[in-house]
Design goal:
about 240 residues; alpha+beta; NADH Oxidase; five-stranded antiparallel β-sheet; two-stranded antiparallel ribbon; 7 helices; about 20% strand; globular
Length: about 240
């Protein structure tokens, strides 16, 4: 990997962090906790130790649909909010995944095809409300996602870059990379707990996926993808 490509993964920016005037220090407005909009989760029943021991990436799934309750659990486990705290007129949230400075800069988009009671289409998760907002209904969506993810049907994590840059300036890139891993690992664990599977996907067509989700590719862009579906564990070696 070229040196220039390695730099953002290093922690060197922290040496000079106290000398950097971040937008937060300049008193600029804090970004919204959730992009504006234009049922309680249930826990998996499989022991965590078994889920971790049996973790494997899955790219093939059965035709069985997820229930709405199962989808709710996956979203709660990866982006869900446990508590809201308001201090000085500012609301902070405690989620189920860690994030540098409690920024949580990711938005979860879902290309839903087999979820009971949910019309197939493109959705975005609203963690503050624990609800889905419908972004697009398009019969060609599954094929578009498949092409964009190099034939690895996926859900996507798009990140609004400024939300974390507001606080950490040049150090934001490394924290974003770390946060993406936190979210996807929780997805693996939560999926295993309900008899489903997933696979972290980093090889996708950046431009095509940004266009599909309707994000600008600059301040917000796709950074991680993962398919989710039910697994026939009898066929898993």
């Amino acid at each position: 990997m070229p040196k220039s490509k390695r730099e953002f993964l290093k922690a060197n920016e922290w040496k000079n962090f106290g000398q950097i005037a971040t937008d937060q220090q300049k008193g600029l407005p804090r970004p919204d906790l959730q992009k504006p909009v234009p049922p309680d989760a249930v826990l998996g029943r499989k022991p965590t130790i078994d889920v971790i021991r049996e973790r494997i990436s899955h790219r093939s799934f059965t035709s069985e649909a997820l229930t709405l309750e199962e989808l709710s659990f996956l979203l709660w486990a990866t982006q869900g909010i446990r508590e809201k705290i308001t201090e000085g007129g500012i609301t902070y949230v405690m989620r189920n995944v860690p994030s540098g400075g409690n920024r949580h800069p990711f938005e979860t988009y879902l290309s839903i095809h087999r979820v009971e009671g949910v019309q197939p289409g493109l959705y975005r998760y609203l963690p503050l409300d624990h609800q889905l907002v419908q972004e697009k209904i398009d019969p060609t969506l599954p094929e578009q996602v498949n092409q964009g993810s190099r034939n690895q049907n996926s859900r996507s994590e798009a990140q609004p870059y400024y939300f974390i840059k507001w606080r950490y300036h040049r150090a934001a890139a490394k924290l974003i990379a770390l946060d993406a891993g936190h979210i996807c690992q929780n997805l693996y664990i939560a999926a295993g707990a309900i008899g489903a599977g997933t696979c972290a996907v980093g090889a996708f067509d950046q431009t095509k996926m940004n266009e599909l989700l309707g994000v600008d590719g600059e301040d917000e862009f796709v950074i991680y993808m993962a398919p989710v579906g039910k697994i026939d564990y009898r066929k898993v070696a």
